[in-house]
Amino acid sequence: MSKNTEVYLNQYKNELLNNVLPFWQNYSKDTENGGYFTCLTREGKVFDTDKFVWLQGRQVWLFSMLYNQLEKKPEWLAFAQHGADFLKKYGRNEDGTWFFSLTNSGKPLVKPYNIFSDCFATQAFGQLYKATGNDEYADIARTTFYSILERRNNPKRHWSKAVEGTRPLKNFALPMILSNLALEIEHLLPKAKVEQLIDECIHEVMDVFYDKKSGLILENVTPEGCFSDSFEGRLLNPGHAIEAMWFIMDLGERRGDTKLIEAAKNIVLHTIEYAWDKKHGGILYFMDILGNPPQQLEWDQKLWWVHIETLIALLKGYLHTGDKKCWEWFEKLHEWTFSHYPDSEFGEWFGYLNRAGEPLLTLKGGKWKGCYHIPRGLYQCWKTLEKIQKNEK
Length: 393
Fold this sequence. Notes:
The protein is mainly alpha-helical. It has a domain at 167-362: Glycosyltransferase. The protein is 53% helix and 8% strand. It has twelve helices and 14 strands. The chain has helices at residues 5-27, 53-69, 74-90, 116-132, 135-151, 173-184, 191-208, 238-255, 258-275, 304-321, 324-338, 373-392, and strands at 39-40, 46-48, 51-52, 101-102, 108-110, 170-171, 210-211, 216-217, 220-221, 235-236, 287-288, 302-303, 352-353, 359-361. The strands form six sheets. A three-stranded antiparallel beta sheet has the order 3-4-5. Strands 12-13-14 form a three-stranded antiparallel beta sheet. It has a two-stranded antiparallel ribbon with strand order 1-2. The protein is globular. The protein starts with a helix and ends with a helix.
């Protein structure tokens, strides 16, 4: 039996404000050296003190965004600035690129091989500028963003492991991120530049990486945008594909492009139908688009971010198109997600489940999981459900 919209709405709101955010506020702040600890046990104890720049940026962004869009709580802004101060002091290399990881006290550990540190630093300082009006934050966000654009055709630069020229492939992750980053940073850019970037992102995601034959989003394509019959070329990352579709729906909403929204919604539905684990429920992590064995040994794990991002996409699809399949899938996925991930005893969510839905790792944060996907997703679902509820009246 379907719950009404308000029940879901209140559940997401409560989960965000009373379960997830307090966990990070209580346990992640490094009061001695600055920044945040992300390697946290189930109970919130720090088990490793290394600091990963992209996760630091994500947490700065999250609390800045909540301050800007939800409520101007001084403690949220102070929490964001705490992380930003650490990043500003230690996060960048001499050439302005951002390190991947730092020691507890801020010494560089891993060089800037990964452009996603730069992407989330841009998000962090762009959102913090909105909150404070501090021009230094605007300058950091803007210069980092233009550096990303200059490097986007070769994001890993000399750190790439691939031999040049043998099997050149381009990856979906950066166009996906830029689809969201374009809106995150638009208040700091010329309007014409933003519109140009949005055009390019929509083209890349919906024309280049979308495979018409399968109706799915490829994770890697040739430089010409063609299919590569290789491990990398056959790879489907359902979470990436679906997350990108709600970014595209947001761009479609901005432009009043109902055809674009409809196309994105259809890809969401097709992807979840393809990637749903019919034996145990939940969404598989990696798949081979031709049904071959995938190379990733963790292919059958169930990850937190995949599920919360899909919940967002299904709700946005239902909001914009009224397609009942989106709502049916939302209810099915909501039930599976909330019966497996939230930790009722210690707060926050488990991140890594095995195929049967049992926790593989009980950690609440680590090198890859931080204060981002779950709180952002809960906020997005809550606010989208408010819009759905308004349309129902």
